[in-house]
């Protein structure tokens, strides 16, 4: 196990011990888990649509998953896990080793991707397993939607598309567009008609790969940032071939730490006992926004505006182009 994997397997306390009521295949390479209280009569802590929980895989690694069940149902948390062959091993452990009846340690729900109740309408864009938080949102509307909504759900192949039957139900056909590219770039779905003209009161919610979210952000540059919401299912961003170690210094104390390849600024701060706010840990919610005092950042978030990049940084994903960053928590 690598050093980063060992850090993931630290004994971070998770307050809820739940039981796997069911574990089933949702699509090729995707497994669904229904998590319930050990005491069948107990209720789970409430959550809102778009929330996520952290779970401890059988191999000890901690992973974050969106809750895809209806927030009105406090008897269970449902999550969907995509088995990543090239990942660090958390998803493989969950899919291969966790079964019905097994206990699992879980965090309290947290929400970095909440619905804006003031929106007049919602446009959802989901890529692959990014459907999970959006499905919870759709389920939360029930039979009487609070606002008009529509969904564009993109995947490579039909057989690898989770929740397909539910989203193809007759009552949803006028609201839901499902597109399979079959891995052919020429079959990519054109999102421009959806994003070309900002609509008063409409909010865009996008969850999927970094590539999809970056494309949506680029196309929606003329939208108000308050109308755009992103959620990533990749914590801490993905390492890139040209990543290199750098140092981060706290302006208030002068403390200095090295940030190795594979670790984030936020992880290093927490590891050294520095309190720093965070939530999504994927560069999409803005909770870890920190003032950048000195140095050149390598921004990898979905939040900062161009005019903010010289003075702000998201510590959960962004790295450095200079050897040193000085930040002010």
UniProtKB/TrEMBL annotation:
CDD domains: fer2, PDR_like. One of its GO terms (molecular function) is dioxygenase activity. It comes from the Bacteria. Keywords: 2Fe-2S, Dioxygenase, Flavoprotein, Iron, Iron-sulfur, Metal-binding, Oxidoreductase. The keyword Metal-binding applies. The keyword Chloroplast does not apply. Residues 13-116 form the FAD-binding FR-type domain. Residues 246-329 form the 2Fe-2S ferredoxin-type domain. Its EC number is 1.-.-.-. PANTHER family: CARNITINE MONOOXYGENASE REDUCTASE SUBUNIT, NADH OXIDOREDUCTASE HCR. This is Phthalate dioxygenase reductase. The gene is ophA.
């Amino acid at each position: 196990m690598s050093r980063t994997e060992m850090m993931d397997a630290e004994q971070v306390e998770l307050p809820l011990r739940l039981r796997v009521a069911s574990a089933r295949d949702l699509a090729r390479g995707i497994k669904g888990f229904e998590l319930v209280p050990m005491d069948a009569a107990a209720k789970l802590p409430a959550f809102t649509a778009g929330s996520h929980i952290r779970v401890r895989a059988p191999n000890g690694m901690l992973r974050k998953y969106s809750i895809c069940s209806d927030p009105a149902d406090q008897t269970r948390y449902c999550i969907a896990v995509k088995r990543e062959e090239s990942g660090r091993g958390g998803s493989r452990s969950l899919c291969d080793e966790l079964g019905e009846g097994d206990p699992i340690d879980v965090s309290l729900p947290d929400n970095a991707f909440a619905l804006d109740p003031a929106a007049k309408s919602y446009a959802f864009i989901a890529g692959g397993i990014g459907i999970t938080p959006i499905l919870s949102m759709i389920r939360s509307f029930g039979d009487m939607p609070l606002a008009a909504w529509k969904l564009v759900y993109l995947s490579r192949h039909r057989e690898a598309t989770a929740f397909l039957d539910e989203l193809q139900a007759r009552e949803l056909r006028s609201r839901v567009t499902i597109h399979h590219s079959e891995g052919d770039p020429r079959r990519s779905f054109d999102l421009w008609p959806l994003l070309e003209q900002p609509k008063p009161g409409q909010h865009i919610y996008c969850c999927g790969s970094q590539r999809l979210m970056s494309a949506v952000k680029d196309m929606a540059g003329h939208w108000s940032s308050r109308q755009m919401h992103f959620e990533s299912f990749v914590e801490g961003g993905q390492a890139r071939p040209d990543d290199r170690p750098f140092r981060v210094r706290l302006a208030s104390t002068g403390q200095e730490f090295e940030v190795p390849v594979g670790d984030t600024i936020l992880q290093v701060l927490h590891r050294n006992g520095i309190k720093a706010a965070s939530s999504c840990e994927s560069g999409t919610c803005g909770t870890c926004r920190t003032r950048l005092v000195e140095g050149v950042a390598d921004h990898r978030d979905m939040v900062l505006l161009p005019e903010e990049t010289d003075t702000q940084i998201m510590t959960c994903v962004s790295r450095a182009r200079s050897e040193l960053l000085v930040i002010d928590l």
